[in-house]
Amino acid sequence: MTDRKASLQAEPAQEVDRIRDIIFGPQMRDYEQRFETVQHDLDRLRQEIDRLSEQLADQDSSQNKKLQALHQEVRQADDDLRNELRKTAQALMTSKVDRVALGELFIDLGTHLKTGVSLADVLKGLGEKEQD
Question: Which helix (H) or strand (E) element contains residue 98?
Fold first, then answer.
């Protein structure tokens, strides 16, 4: 008897499903098709986002490597410039004019100026002494 009740209850349910399919069938198929299209588009967009994320990560890594190389290059150029400045400063310290020679030069210049020699002659005389 329970089987008969179940089958009696199943028959109206099946009839209701058939009536529902007749009335709403085309709309439901249309909705299912739209849903599948949206689902397909969503999957495609997820794949595109994943691809773009990987591409962005690769570019980020590449830019970081370039930045590190540039940073190293700038540091090396800075060190080279500092070394060159140290060498130049050291060369200037060691190549000072001898005080005795400078004193004699000023004495000669003063003597020439006292005697009334023109400035052009003084400079010419200094040039001759420098060549000696």
Answer: none
